[in-house]
Design a protein that fits this description.
Number of domains: 2
Radius of gyration: 19 Å
Structural class: alpha+beta
Strand content: 15-25%
CATH architecture of the largest domain: 2-Layer Sandwich
Length: about 220
């Protein structure tokens, strides 16, 4: 089945579930308020960031992304633009990003609804895995004993000051060629704001699931 057909069918299923529950998808801020109070049905889930509301259901195959305010619509559009640019490269770089497309275009009366591949977002796992990977490399590079408490203290200061450590971990399983391809695309599109909450897992492979950036 074509990926768009599969994703759009899933998007409509989640929309129908939201409507059946009484969510007004034209007013995502009202849904966000309910979500903060935990007022959503069993089998329907949500999360949110600074700009967008994310909704998914128990099938855990796709998620809806909806801009919380009109001004934030640009983040959804840019994210889809980045994904399809990556897909168009034809060199596998799109595999580093969660699949994304627009399902319903925004109108003057309602926000757009975008659909993204579901990935398992586990902030603690990303922190733990990136810390472990970075600590091992840090000790090897500096000749430190990884079992020494002072080494751990020194790395902790370095880890929390170095925003690139998450990306180093993200690229750790790539070949040199794959890393070059990824970093070239990442830089050309000026992707930023990639942190532990913006990375999920497709199986055991880390995937960037929020790559629209922030504050532009």
């Amino acid at each position: 089945m074509d990926r768009r057909i599969e994703a759009f069918e899933a998007a409509q299923r989640i929309i129908d579930e939201c409507v059946d529950y009484g969510f007004d998808l034209t007013d995502p801020e009202s849904i966000l308020k309910l979500g903060r109070r935990g007022q959503y049905p069993c089998g329907l889930y949500m999360n949110w960031g600074a700009t967008r509301l994310v909704i998914w259901d128990e099938y855990e195959d796709y998620v809806l992304k909806i801009a919380i305010q009109d001004y934030y619509e640009k983040y959804n559009a840019h994210e889809a633009e980045i994904y399809w640019a990556a897909e168009g490269e034809g060199n596998g770089v799109s595999e580093s990003f969660a699949w994304c497309d627009c399902y319903i275009e925004p109108t003057v009366d309602a926000p757009g609804i975008y659909v993204m591949e579901y990935v398992n977002c586990d902030e603690d796992r990303v922190i733990d895995d990136s810390y472990t990977y970075g600590y091992k490399r840090f000790c090897e590079d500096n000749g430190y004993d990884p079992d020494d408490e002072e080494s751990a203290d020194a790395y902790s200061d370095y880890y929390y000051e170095d925003s690139d450590e998450i990306l180093d971990y993200f690229m750790s399983d790539m070949s040199d060629k794959e890393r070059q391809i990824f970093w070239t695309f990442f830089s050309e599109w000026r992707i930023h704001d990639v942190h532990c909450q913006n990375i999920g897992f497709r199986g055991n492979k880390p995937i960037i699931c929020d790559y629209a950036g922030w504050g532009w």
